[in-house]
Write a structure and sequence with these properties.
241 residues, globular, mainly alpha, two-stranded antiparallel ribbon, two-stranded antiparallel sheet, 73% helix, 6 helices
């Protein structure tokens, strides 16, 4: 199934308006919600402050079980931001999709695009490698990454680093893209032409509702898994296994 795009070029690179607008909207939602929830913090937190504190405690709990206290504290804010952004991005296309008259979907889940998930994977792996250098020094970091547990495993360790990138990015993309694609297929069946239209509508409506609820759940799980894997890679590259 072809998905029309709205490409444009800038400095010799090709960009897509749908991906850019969706990503900017997800970023805006994260920033606005964070500002609203953290306004006028107090020692006796209200409902809004309780929500943001719960989210922070949740992401801190994810990294706290994988990393030493100092590293967990350094990684905590990034883990919270990463989790929040991925959750919003995953769920956005399920709850809101805007399509132009040209057939291009301008607002959708940014994480249904492999470029976005690969970018997030590169960012997270850069954080992991940077913390590895900080923890072990450059020589110790290279030895731990490439020559552990045995020097003859160098080729396998190099392949593992590439696999980490693919695992982190393609798992997220595949789950969100598949969810949106199946919802689109079910929605199209609601407009099945001919005398069977009523039958397909009755059949497809509950299927779409169930699958949308399941996709919302999967979107949250995938954000959780992404943060966990990032923490695992930090632990590996810092020699904390």
């Amino acid at each position: 199934m072809d998905d029309p795009t709205a490409p444009f070029e800038f400095l010799g690179l090709t960009f897509d308006w749908g991906t850019i607008l969706s990503t900017l909207l997800a970023m805006a939602i994260v920033v606005i919600v964070s500002i609203v929830l953290t306004r006028k913090p107090s020692l006796r937190p209200g409902k809004r402050q309780n929500v943001i504190e719960y989210l922070l405690d949740f992401t801190n709990g994810i990294v706290g079980g994988q990393l030493p206290k100092k590293q967990a504290r350094q990684f905590g804010l990034y883990a919270f931001t990463l989790f929040f952004f991925i959750v919003v991005s995953n769920e956005m296309g399920l709850l809101l999709q805007l399509q132009g008259t040209d057939g291009v979907t301008y607002i959708k889940s940014p994480t249904a695009n492999p470029i976005v998930t690969m970018t997030l994977a590169i960012m997270s792996l850069m954080v992991a490698h940077g913390m590895g250098v900080q923890q072990l020094g450059f020589k110790g970091y290279l030895k731990n990454m490439l020559l552990t547990p045995y020097s003859w495993m160098l080729p396998l360790n190099i392949i593992e680093q590439l696999a980490n990138f693919l695992t982190l990015s393609l798992r997220l993309f595949g789950n969100i893209f598949a969810g949106e694609m199946l919802l689109t297929l079910v929605a199209n069946s609601l407009a099945w032409p001919g005398h069977l239209n009523g039958f397909w509508t009755v059949l497809a409506l509950p299927i779409e509702m169930v699958w949308q609820g399941f996709s919302l759940f999967i979107g949250g799980i995938q954000a959780y898994v992404f943060v966990i894997l990032t923490g695992v890679f930090i632990a590996q590259l810092s020699g904390n296994e």
